[in-house]
Amino acid sequence: MLSTAAAAFKPWRKRLAMIAAEFAVAIGAALAFARWSTTIAVNPMTRIGQVSGLAALQFRLIAVALPLLALVVWSVFRASPRVHRIVLRLVCAAIAGLATGMTAGGQVVALRGTPWPLNGQSGDNGRLEAWATQIQHTGHMVNIYPPVLPHLTAFWADHFVDNHQTAFALKWILIISIALTGPAAYLAWRMFLRPLPALGVGMLAGIPSVVVYKPYSPLVLVVLIPLLAKLLQLLRNSPRRPYPAVAWRGAAVGAMLGVLFIVYSGWHVWSAPGIIVAVLGLFPWRSGRDGMLRAGAFLGTALLAFLIIGGKYGYMLLSAADSTKDRFCSTLTLVDPGYIAMTPFYTRNGNLPGMWPPPGELGGVGVFTALMMVGVAVALTVGLRRSAVIGVVACFGSAWAIRFFFASHMERDQAVQLFPRTYQTLLYCGLALFGLACVLTGERVKERLAAIPALQSPTSSRNAGRYAAVGVLTATVVLTGMAASAQSDPFFPENPKGVSTMGRLAYQAHRLAKPDGTCSKFAPHGVCDKPRKLNPVSPPETDQLLHGCEYAWRKDQP
After folding, report:
1. Is 539 helix (H, G, I), strand (E, B) or coil?
2. How many CA atoms lie within 13 A of 212 on its CB side?
3. Secondary structure of 328-365 in HEC code, one letter for each residue
4. In angstroms, rounded to a whole number, what is the distance separating the alpha carbons of residues 429 and 393?
5. Bridge-partner residues for 547, per DSSP?
6. CA-CA distance, 260 to 367, in Å (whole number)?
7. 457 near 468, Cβ under 8 Å?
8. pLDDT digit string, tens, across residues 473-527
């Protein structure tokens, strides 16, 4: 006979086991697919080799997805409801992993034959490599940047790279970050939604957010927004929970927010004002003294856990806020600040003339953006009391306001202050709200249909739900495969020839020699450049004006 405590723990043990299985399947599928991609033997420097590589990735996706879909079909017709739920849960997790595992596989193919990451020693990756090298020698870095990635790169290079080259470690850390974005998006939304809706919302919002060149930042974004919404939900429920439960939940959420903060802090900055307003609005002011104390204990433990992990870096960030000026214009700096849709990075060359963004169909706004705003309206209409909707709306509104605040002062201050990066938060939140609108509307329709006596048939209702799972999963596999291919293709090596493309980043990686002086396997014409010594200290500003702002697709260019 089980004791009372053991009997009470048994359901939790089963639940924890299923959660662990879901995590393992999602992450395992992503990493395994990326690892499998290393066996695709093509020459990534030729266009035929690139097309063959993309086709091989698609074929392998089919080879893995078909048995998974067949398993779901079997569970629809043959399995018990409990077994069907388990199968569906694990298959959704696997498909979330495959979605970005294939994108990571595209990077594996693009960088086949070279140990260097995208852009070699240049740009953001070159700076990360320099900081990691400094950490190897001194144990710390001089720049104010989220510390996890440089320290992780240094650790990986010291323990898993023969010559301790930080660039070679960074290559695989970035590929793994791409692979984990899909599982992270899916598992984050599982805090609110059942497996199938979580897969839909997670992939709809998470896949377009992937940035192949800097994948660690969207990896944080796809987790942070649902986690902030979860913070609001737990705050609202805290008056009804005992103090120990309130305390450990607050500490858990605060710790996760702190870990994300020291990996990449930008999304916290854009979201913070909106979340603070939401916390004040949802705080249980009318729950009595005891209820407010429990809510205060939740927020207090969350803040304490966050400060323990991210407080030191947060203090450094705030201390440098007045003295740090971002004066570099990216291609997005000169785009209409009200534009939210495709980015110029992947869709056109940075130095070709022509209007950007392209004129939209509805008052200059494209159909994509208009549909996203319809989703926002529907989500607010049917889910205004839902914590998930409130949290995402708070982050969207916060980033929207901060974007225009910094952009409006750009000319006066001659500083960009990273405002174009709010774009990713806005895109992710808008698509997440569209997905939530679809889910909540579906729930409303299901409730209304259930109230019609003629349609009340448990068997037909259950089967309809199961059949829908087959259709949604099939469409998700095809769509995410197409998206992964489309995201990978621009980053295959391409000789710049005076034209700024994303393909130049991989081309540069193939052009760099190895530490022993030999060229990479597919170096163009067997010619390569000698690696240079990196300086972890940024060069001093030579002027007080914005620089890098001349892009030929500006409207005033011929």
Report:
1. coil
2. 30
3. ECCHHHHCCCCCCCCCHHHHCCCCCCCCCCCCECECEE
4. 7
5. 328
6. 34
7. no
8. 999 999 999 999 999 999 999 998 877 788 999 999 999 999 888 999 999 989 9
Residue 23: the pLDDT is 98
Structure tokens at 334: 């000169």
Q: What is the DSSP letter of 112?
A: T
Q: What is the DSSP string of 143-203?
A: S-S-SHHHHHHHHHHHHH-TT--HHHHHHHHHHHHHHHHHHHHHHHHTTTS-HHHHHHHHH
pLDDT at 285: 96
Q: Which amino acid is at 284?
A: P
Alpha-carbon dihedral 33, 34, 39, 41, rounded to 10 degrees: 120
pTM above 0.85, yes or no: yes
| Residue carrying structure tokens 């409801």 | 81
Measured CA distances, 346 to 283, 448, 490 (Å): 42, 43, 6
CA-based nearest residue to 263, from 227, 297, 218, 233: 218
Q: What angle do CA 389, 390, 391 make, to 5 degrees?
A: 90
Work out whether the CA dihedral 253, 258, 260, 261 comes out positive or negative. positive
Does residue 139 come out as left (phi exceeding 0), alpha (psi in the -120 to 50 range) or beta? left
Which CB contacts under 8 angstroms, 24+ apart, belong to 516-525?
520/113, 520/114, 520/115, 520/116, 521/112, 521/113, 521/114, 522/43, 522/44, 522/45, 522/112, 522/113, 522/114, 522/493, 523/114, 524/45, 524/495
